[in-house]
Amino acid sequence: MDTAANGHENFFKKLRYLIVDDFDSFRLSMRQMLRNFGAEHIEVANSGGAAIQRCTYEQFDVVLCDYNLGEGKNGQHILEELRHKKLLKRTSLFLMVTAETSKEMVMGAREYQPDAYLTKPINRAMLEKRLGSLVEQRRALLPINRAIDLENFPEAISLCVQALPKQTKYKTWLLKTLADLYQQVGDFGHARKIYDEVLTQRDLSWARLGKGKVLLAEQHFDEAISTLKSLIADHPDYIEGYDLLAQAQAQQGKLSLAQDTLSKAAELSPNALLRQKHFAEIAQTNQDMTTASDAWRKTVQLGAHSIHDNAEHYLGLGRSLCELSEGDSSEAGKAHADEAILVLGRMEKRFPEAPEVVIRSRLIQSRVNMGQGNTAEAEKCLQTVVTDLEEPTSLSADTAIEYAKTLFRLGRAEEAKHLLARLAKQHEDNSELLQQIESLLDEPVSYRQRMVARDLNRTGIKAFEEGALDDAAAAFKQALEIVPSHASLNLNLIQVLMKMYSEQPERQAALKDCDRHLDALAALPEHHRQHRRYLALKKKLEGLKNA
Description:
The chain has helices spanning 8-14, 24-36, 48-57, 75-84, 103-110, 124-149, 153-163, 171-184, 188-201, 205-217, 221-234, 239-251, 255-268, 273-285, 289-302, 311-325, 331-350, 355-371, 375-383, 397-409, 413-426, 431-442, 447-465, 469-482, 487-503, 508-520, 531-546; strands at 16-20, 41-45, 62-66, 93-98, 116-119. The protein has 547 residues and is mainly alpha-helical. Among the domains are: 8-149, 3-Layer(aba) Sandwich (Rossmann fold); 152-261, Tetratricopeptide repeat domain (Serine Threonine Protein Phosphatase 5, Tetratricopeptide repeat, Alpha Horseshoe), CATH 1.25.40; 447-546, Serine Threonine Protein Phosphatase 5, Tetratricopeptide repeat (Alpha Horseshoe). Strands 2-1-3-4-5 form a five-stranded parallel β-sheet.
């Protein structure tokens, strides 16, 4: 290709370039090729850190970045950080250069949307052809991208509409961008119209994904899930479809299905930190601590050089390992406990300027030690932060919850209940926090005990549905021996006992048991999820007595 003849030389000349590679010879080679194209302003960086620093203080039009950069950040880390910090404008180009073509690398890097991949070895003809077409597209769409960078979305929409009949070469890009912009401003009707029109002509994955986003935004959950399932069935490697499907399933309350979906996504693309974090959180909510700990562990590993590294990832891993190790004296239990202490210690060194993070770390370590029978060490861990805990009202809600969990584990249940009562009063409008408090008060026991109680609850419900009332009552009573204050379990048992009495009035003892279990719930707060049911069953019991 004759650069001058095609008008590219002037475009190349005006742009500012950054070459990122840890080999001096490659940087020199790329620089020479760019100079041959007419480029004048060319900077280089030999590491991820140096590249981020350069982009912080200077705006580049083209970044040519190698994926493998030795120790430290790789090309994916650089791209995600530039996107996160908004150091890479839409008007800029990011080209990922690599000799590696593994699926994990490509899938992981693709999620942060580089403008192109260049596979080593790179020759002048290849670079000129790829870069030339990208620079030409950049020039043609520059006004639209500038408007988006300035977050002037109405202007960007107007420019896209004007460009559609003129820039037919970039029609697909314009339609996709226009639909995205309509979603940004909340105009889902126009966005959906574009996706539907595109899909009547061609089966494009981005249009099917976009339609799924619109359906989800409009809370058409079943239709969104159907659309997204169809998308990933036809395009199993389209990773964005899995993420959106899991989001839809979670919003419907189908957390087990959401976990399965994220498991498949994490298997396909294991190097995306935010997905691993979401996977860990869903698994933890589902009480699948083995899966949660694996996902948190991966999240922590991926955070080593990532802008998304966070103390909460270490705390999440510490908590899940604490749950797995509690009451487990086997080698596996001890290994989980040792790993938890090690991970939390590393976190304290990594985030030394976050005092509440250290407090939470020590509280979890206290529970880890208590779970392994090391009472003295558990008390010692608590004592290291006891001064900070003397004024619970000054603690964040997350730290107060952590403190309450630890008080329960150390046998100081009344202190824990008092703390949670004050916390609930302070945050009476925070439904999510109130639900956490309810769950903790219902099940202030170890992970293994919770799992046993929940299995017994399921057994009791199944027996009740089958009409085996005595078996149902036995299962609920056994569960209540583990968690005597559990509101739902107490009410389940009351419901069974009332059914027994209705069928066999001679069983007067059943009514007395109902009274006892209702009395146990007398202090149930009005905001509790089971409060309405408590009132309904109480009224029904009075009716049975007066009949």
